[in-house]
Design goal:
Layout lengths: L10 H24 L6 H4 L1 H12 L7 H16 L4 E6 L2 E6 L9 H14 L2 H8 L2 H5 L5 H13 L9 H11 L1 E6 L2 E6 L1 H22 L3 H21 L12 H12 L13 H4 L6
Antiparallel strand pairs: 1-2, 3-4
Helix pairs in contact: 1-3, 3-4, 4-5, 5-6, 5-12, 8-9, 8-10, 9-10, 10-11, 10-12
Length: 285
């Protein structure tokens, strides 16, 4: 078992605080929508996400990822809606809201974060909604790595024909150092050593895990998984990110393990960063 790094924050106390904020925001959100007030769905989704992280660390039985996912998808639908208003469904309530055209939180990476959660909780309805939004999010980005990475995710989920060259394509893109730069004068492609390094260390290994999982290479999958987890823990410690909650649970890796588990790959590596109860579908969402 690869233990999580030590956390110095009082997470039990934080859970109570965030739970209270979650309950309050849920009431506030529906009240504001029904009153016709402007609401930022993308902002409201952060609280259930944070609550879910703390709940998983504390091994709670009920996790609020479903609301995070629902709010995130409805936000994307709202951003890309061409009509002045649209009807959305939240917590089984049908509501009408005004559309927006701010293009905030609509990148490929934003889409992937939502898709990871949909994969973890195995919600086919929300995955279908996200498949319908991928082209819009692709159009928001020029980044070759993330565009090609999402091609791989779609291939693994049988939405595109699988290409054996996809992994070598991703490695070539990473080696090129080309990343998308977001500036005041718009987005453009530039070369960045820092961007190359972070993708080589953090994101390419996850895409490689998807690749070997698709090909059902169980031994290689477990070797790569162990290597990545050991590296990631040390990176967190070296960079003094122990109290950064985004590093307590590895959702992208959990989604990949959920995919691999469903492909009948026996995952032999255990870690608190990827609770087996989650990727095996035991946790109540």
């Amino acid at each position: 078992m690869l233990k999580r790094h030590d956390i110095n924050r009082d997470i039990s106390k934080e859970f109570e605080i965030v739970q209270g904020r979650f309950d309050k925001n849920k009431r506030k959100l529906f009240k504001r929508i029904k009153q016709g007030a402007s609401v930022n769905l993308n902002g409201y989704k952060d609280t259930p996400y944070q609550l879910s992280i703390i709940a998983l660390v504390l091994s709670k039985k009920s996790i609020e990822l479903l609301q995070y996912l629902e709010l995130g998808i409805r936000h994307l639908e709202r951003e890309f809606c061409t009509d002045s208003t649209l009807k959305i469904k939240l917590s089984d309530q049908e509501l009408e809201i005004e559309s927006t055209n701010e293009r905030s939180g609509t990148s490929i990476f934003d889409w992937w974060k939502l898709f990871n959660v949909a994969s973890i909780i195995r919600n086919e309805e929300f995955k279908k909604d996200l498949y319908g939004l991928i082209d819009n999010c692709m159009n928001e980005s020029k980044d070759p790595f993330w565009r090609r990475s999402m091609d791989l995710i779609l291939m693994c989920n049988e939405k595109k024909e699988f290409q054996e060259s996809i992994l070598s394509d991703l490695k070539s893109i990473v080696n090129s150092g080309v990343v998308e730069f977001h500036g005041l004068d718009g987005n453009k492609l530039v070369k960045s050593k820092d961007g190359k390094d972070i993708r080589e260390m953090m994101w390419l290994p996850i895409m490689e895990l998807y690749y070997v999982a698709y090909n059902k290479e169980e031994i290689i999958f477990n070797k790569l998984l162990e290597k990545y987890l050991i590296f990631k823990k040390q990176w967190i410690i070296n960079n003094k990110e122990e109290d950064n909650s985004s590093y307590w649970i590895d959702f992208p890796l959990l989604a990949c393990c959920s995919y691999a588990f469903d492909k009948n790959i026996k995952i032999t590596i255990e870690s608190e960063y990827i609770p087996s109860s989650v990727y095996k579908g035991v946790v109540n969402f």
